[in-house]
Design brief:
This protein is of the alpha+beta class and 93 residues long. The protein has a domain of 52 residues. 56% of the residues lie in helices and 13% in strands. It is built from 2 helices and 2 strands. A two-stranded antiparallel ribbon has the order 1-2. β1 and β2 form a beta hairpin. α1 crosses α2. The chain starts with 18 loop residues before the first helix and ends with a strand. Keywords: Membrane, Transmembrane, Transmembrane helix.
Length: 93
Amino acid sequence: MIRYPHLRPSGTGPKPPSATTSIGGSLVFMLGTFALFVAVSYPVPAITLVVGLTLAGVALRRILPALGRRLRGRMAELDVPGFGTVEIRVSTR
């Protein structure tokens, strides 16, 4: 009787776990679980926080490009004591 060795398709072998991935994943899981418990315990502040962060994100996405267009080509000078004068110019890509 002929016996064939167990042939495994390439790429399906066991891979060693990465130490940073498992630690990072564990920390994210624990923080997410903690945040979920806090959100369930205090629903009104949690909803307020989520809505506030969402509105801040939308506002920043609208305000920052407009501010960049407005300040394009302008130069600002800052006097830093002990270092000198710093010139800042805003330019778009």
